[in-house]
Amino acid sequence: MAFVRKDLLGIRDLSSEEIQTILDTAESLREINLREIKKVPTLRGKTVVHLFYEPSTRTRTSFDVAAKRLSADTYSIATSTSSMVKGETFLDTIKNLEAMGPDVFVIRHSASGTPHRIAARTSASVINAGDGMHEHPSQALLDMLTIRQKRGRLEGLNVLIVGDIAHSRVARSNIWGLTKMGAHVTLCAPPTLLPAEAASLPVRVSHQLDTVLGAADVIMVLRLQKERQGQGLLPSLREYAVFYGLDRKKLEKARDDVLIMHPGPMNRGVEISPDVADGPHSVILDQVANGVAVRMALLYLLVHREVPPVRG
Ligand code: CP
């Protein structure tokens, strides 16, 4: 199937066929990351610009690694050293960067909808690398790729998402993606950390982790997003960890083959204990490795607007 989009702004917009195409493309490009020389000329002469107006370790680095593995030129704008500190607007910044002829902008911003506004004003492709509490589509795609690799499918699996769902763009993108691909999603959080729209989403909701652990094929643990929370949402971190932190004792109620995922960054000892994060069920570093493959696929598909030829 051809992939004919200019931009990747969210999972909610995508069809299940488009998600399948991205995952299949990532799977076929993944072997480049296993070679001795991890570089192909596919995007030679193309330019990818990283605009991260919020902190990032994994997303920013893996988009950069992905672009470089495909031989694109890359550059980054850091908030603190750009002329936005002198009062230039974000849109003026984009217009000036566009005059230098980029092919792709990768944008992370604290304001939901920023990548959408930029996409409507530039001929370059725009990839949403996380916008406020809205979506983080490349994270959901790498999560789906990881589950598919480990379980051979997404359809019919029970995925439990635990933690600060209200403030999580990762959760929103995963809810859309996983349910479009036929997985069953359960959200588990204290009532104050569930999104207002939870009742209208195609998910089950629970407030008691012990009662929903046993049915899960995958447990996706989320960080408390303190940078987006108001005051008084939680009594204490200690209490949160007792009821919702995933530790070895709680894991005894889970299936023997359950997968433990976390998008990072982790707060060890709060939402997940170190022995679970580093334990045999954890696929957290597989998620990171798959992030490079998924971002290679996105850059390839958005620039070429077709799937890559099958490798012999
Ligand atoms: N998962 C994720 O978005 O991590 P970073 O904030 O480090 O990019």
UniProtKB/TrEMBL annotation:
Enzyme Commission number: 2.1.3.2
Official protein name in the record: Aspartate carbamoyltransferase
CC annotations in GO: cytosol
Single Gene Ontology MF annotation: aspartate carbamoyltransferase activity
PANTHER family: ASPARTATE CARBAMOYLTRANSFERASE, ORNITHINE CARBAMOYLTRANSFERASE, MITOCHONDRIAL
Keyword Transferase on entry: yes
Aspartate/ornithine carbamoyltransferase Asp/Orn-binding domain sequence ranges: 155-302
Binding residue positions for carbamoyl phosphate: R58, T59, R108, H136, Q139, G264, P265
GO biological process terms on file: 'de novo' pyrimidine nucleobase biosynthetic process; 'de novo' UMP biosynthetic process; amino acid metabolic process
Catalytic activity: carbamoyl phosphate + L-aspartate = N-carbamoyl-L-aspartate + phosphate + H(+)
Assembly: Heterododecamer (2C3:3R2) of six catalytic PyrB chains organized as two trimers (C3), and six regulatory PyrI chains organized as three dimers (R2).
Keywords: Pyrimidine biosynthesis, Transferase
Residues annotated to bind L-aspartate: K86, R169, R223
EC class of the enzyme, as a word: transferase
Family per similarity comment: Belongs to the aspartate/ornithine carbamoyltransferase superfamily. ATCase family.
Domain of life where this protein originates: Bacteria
Function: Catalyzes the condensation of carbamoyl phosphate and aspartate to form carbamoyl aspartate and inorganic phosphate, the committed step in the de novo pyrimidine nucleotide biosynthesis pathway.
Domain Aspartate/ornithine carbamoyltransferase carbamoyl-P binding: 6-149
Pathway listed: Pyrimidine metabolism; UMP biosynthesis via de novo pathway; (S)-dihydroorotate from bicarbonate: step 2/3
Chain's gene name: pyrB
Lineage: Bacteria, Pseudomonadati, Thermodesulfobacteriota, Syntrophobacteria, Syntrophobacterales
UniProt cross-references to NCBIfam families, sorted A to Z: asp_carb_tr, PRK00856.1
